[in-house]
Amino acid sequence: MIKKILKSYDYSLIAVYIFLCFFGLVMVYSASMVMAVERFDLTSDYFYKKQLINVLIGFAAFTVAAWFPYKAFQVGKIIKGLMTVIIIMLVSVHIFGSEVNNARSWINLGFMRIQPSEFAKLAVVIYLGSVYSKKQAYINDLNRGLAPPLIFLGFICFIVFLEPDFGTAAIIFMIGAIVILCSGINFRTISKLAGIGAGLLVIVSPFIYLARGFIFTTERMSRIEAYLSPFKDAQGEGYQLVNSYLAIGSGGVQGLGLGQSIQKLGYIPEPQTDFIMAIIAEELGVFGVSFVILGLTYIVLRGIYIGVKCQDPFGTMLAIGISSMIGIQAFINLGGVSGLIPITGVPLPFISYGGSSLLVLSLSLGVLVNVSMFVKYEEKYKTKKENDEPLENMSSNKRIYGVKM
Asked: Angle, nearest 10°, between helix axes 355-380 and 116-133?
């Protein structure tokens, strides 16, 4: 049975993941080598070494997640334990968290920092998928089917929003909304939800007005102004975006060559994080940009395909939820770098420097690969006799890898 399982893995998805991680590792070194020395007085490979550790940890997490049966997340004790840990982490940020870029989003463990809101993205996908897969018989009942998980999603978004991290809260909400839309609800129920959402917006509008100083801070408004007119204050709020334009324009089709970026020499602050795509465009041109975009597009489209093919509602919601998470983050990052949308500080999946983001994305892709494995396994061996024990167990969801659930 183990040999059949290994044959059922989606190795194209695994290969794209590995290529993107190693490509990101190379670009992190290229983007950060000068800044590490001149700005932080560190060795040129400081960020490269740290990212290498992040990649290795991510690979280990990916391997575990790819082997761990996704259907186990439907077990009540596991999902309750997972969400309890996430809530404790999110609350702890407000008590023990450290502030970075005017947001208290990080917990410093001494040997590393973690960002709980990153883990909340995957946890929300697993939670909503698990709950709604069990409510299929009455999924269109607002009170019994949809309301309780929706309230919980709103609570998670509110905690993250208070950090304050409006961008991540909005991403978590969008991911949750996509999972809900794929949960099996009909158009009539969607219309009801839209009406309720519009009504709630009208109700909270006065409170939003009263809290406008907290919500529409000077920093957030300056980002919008920089997005609308970056050259108006090219040495101030529009500095990052203007230099991103210069990097992208300088790269052209062929690029200046790996390691030859000008904008990483102090013009783009911390180029190895949110604006790493600008450095890729400058050094590797259209080829480098296309490599990243095609790789991310393949993962997203492949994930959606897996979700459509999966006969298990939980697997479908997991696959589409994870795909949407990667797609949304990629769009927001690329949109910010290119000036299509305001800058939000969202890292580019699998490419940007950062431990929490890469770890969560690796875990997420591991789960997606596991869902794909189950889909491929059941398709390949569905012609077996009904008394074939492995297939019966996989389909009935009573046993997973020979372990009774």
From this structure: 30
Report yes or no: 250 and 256 within 8 Å, Cβ to Cβ. Answer: yes
Closest of 51, 102, 129, 324 to residue 218, by C-alpha: 102
Q: Could you tell me the maximum CA-CA distance found in the chain, to the nearest angstrom? A: 72
DSSP letters spanning 27-65: HHHHHHHHHHHHTT---TTHHHHHHHHHHHHHHHHHHHH
Which residues are within 8 A (CB) of 271 and not within 5 positions of it... i.e. 6 or more apart? Answer: 31, 32, 35, 261, 263, 264, 278, 279
Q: What is the pTM of this model?
A: 0.89
Residues in the chain: 405
Q: What is the DSSP string of 88-130?
A: HHHHHHHHHPEEETTEEEEEE-SS-EE-HHHHHHHHHHHHHHH
Output the DSSP codes for 214-256.
Answer: HHS-HHHHHHHHHHH-GGGGTTTTTHHHHHHHHHHHHHTTT-S
CB 366 within 8 A of CB 63: yes
Task: For the chain, 405 residues long, give each residue's pLDDT as a single digit of tens.
Answer: 677 777 888 999 999 999 999 999 999 999 999 999 988 899 999 999 999 999 999 999 999 999 999 999 988 888 889 999 999 999 998 888 777 666 678 888 776 788 899 999 999 999 999 999 999 888 888 888 888 888 889 999 999 988 878 888 999 999 999 999 999 888 888 898 889 888 888 888 887 767 766 666 677 677 788 788 888 888 888 888 999 999 999 998 999 999 999 999 988 988 999 999 999 999 999 999 999 999 999 999 999 999 999 989 999 999 999 999 999 999 999 999 999 988 888 899 999 998 899 999 999 999 999 999 988 887 776 655 444 554 444 444 444 444 444
Query: Hey, how many other C-beta atoms are within 10 angstroms of the C-beta on 334?
Result: 18
Collapsing DSSP to helix, strand or coil, 17 comes out as: helix
Q: CA-CA distance, 284 to 251, in Å (whole number)?
A: 7
Contacts 24+ apart (CB under 8 A), 270-273: 270/32, 270/35, 271/31, 271/32, 271/35, 272/27, 272/28, 272/31, 272/32, 272/35, 272/47, 272/51, 272/352, 272/353, 273/347, 273/352, 273/353, 273/354
Residue 369: name the closest of 79, 1, 69 by CA.
Answer: 69
